[in-house]
Design the sequence.
């Protein structure tokens, strides 16, 4: 169903792979070239995802825009810290969740972003204490954070912001655990939802 006038539309889609069943609710200002690309799920994921129709070549152009952060073009939740690929050109995204370490030790975060973006980690579950740990000005390569000593079971606010210009687009965050294994992307079993948008 298409309704007009409300840009704060909430889209949640059920993508049941077994039955190839797809259900879509409450779609506002629907633009098929955008909405059909997102992997939203009826299972409420831990990652709050927001898409902004903002064309910019810098992060500062994104975070100082009038639509950021409270007026996204659409929002939804994702199971993993991984956006859709090849959505469209000229947009920005924000992904937020709480990272919960399974063990105490040293963690190294990584990101793959096209065109560019930043990853923030807080020392606790609040956004107010976030610091940027990854700044990726160019697409393609996996950019690593410094090693972070984290406590098992504690909640750490984790955020990605990024923007796409043209051609390919993807935004994903991964992590190397203290035992050396790589979780790419960070999956739902290491994440909890943020407590406030
Ligand atoms: Ca691109």
Sequence:
């Amino acid at each position: 169903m298409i309704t007009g006038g409300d840009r704060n539309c909430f889209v949640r889609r059920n993508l049941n792979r077994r039955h190839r069943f797809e259900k879509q609710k409450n779609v506002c200002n629907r633009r098929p070239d955008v909405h059909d690309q997102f992997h939203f799920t009826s299972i409420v994921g831990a990652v709050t995802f927001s898409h902004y129709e903002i064309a910019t070549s810098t992060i500062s152009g994104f975070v100082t825009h009038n639509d950021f952060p409270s007026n996204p073009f659409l929002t939804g939740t994702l199971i993993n810290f991984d956006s859709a690929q090849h959505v469209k050109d000229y947009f920005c995204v924000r992904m937020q969740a709480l990272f919960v370490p399974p063990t105490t030790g040293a963690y190294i975060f990584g990101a793959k972003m096209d065109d560019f973006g930043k990853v923030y980690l807080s020392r606790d579950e609040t956004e107010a204490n976030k610091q940027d740990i990854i700044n990726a000005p160019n697409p393609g390569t996996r950019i690593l954070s410094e090693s972070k000593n984290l406590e098992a079971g504690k909640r750490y606010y984790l955020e990605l912001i990024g923007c796409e210009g043209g051609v390919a687009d993807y935004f994903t965050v991964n992590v190397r655990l203290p035992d050396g294994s790589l979780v790419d992307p960070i999956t739902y079993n290491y994440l909890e939802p943020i407590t406030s948008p």
